[in-house]
Write a structure and sequence with these properties.
There is one protein chain. This protein has about 120 residues and is an alpha+beta fold. It is about 30% helix and about 45% strand. A hairpin with a 4-residue loop joins strand 5 and strand 6.
Length: about 120
């Protein structure tokens, strides 16, 4: 096993439905040697991993810039989830990272009303 792995750039994020996974293709330094990696994350863990990576990035940026941690969303969209009782919200972050978040339709309605009220304030 390598002692040190440092991912320098994520080149692609590719779904692999046959394996039930999301595959990250990345450039990394493995024990100081430039290496292309493929990291498979099971589909059910992908949102948790995405949130953890985004939070880590936010903390690193906050430490660098002297700001409080925050995840800056560039855009958001609501798309069909394939289930009438569930709404999928997709958040777009810097460099094209997309985080899909599913919630009950009632929670989506509550979010919609809160956003409308916030914009009127």
């Amino acid at each position: 096993m390598p002692k040190n792995i440092e991912i320098s750039r994520v080149k692609a994020v590719v779904p692999d439905p046959a394996a039930g996974a999301i595959v990250l293709k990345a450039e990394a330094l493995v024990d100081e040697t430039p290496t292309d990696l493929e990291i498979a994350i099971t589909t059910d863990l992908a949102p948790s991993v995405a949130i953890a990576l985004l939070a880590t990035t936010a903390r690193a940026r906050a430490a660098r810039d002297g700001l409080e941690p925050a995840l800056e969303v560039l855009a958001a969209a609501v798309v069909a989830s394939g289930n009438a009782e569930v709404v999928r919200l997709q958040l777009l972050f810097d460099k094209g990272a997309v985080l899909p978040v599913e919630m009950p339709t009632a929670a989506g309605e509550a979010l919609k009303h809160a956003l409308v009220n916030a914009s009127l304030s």
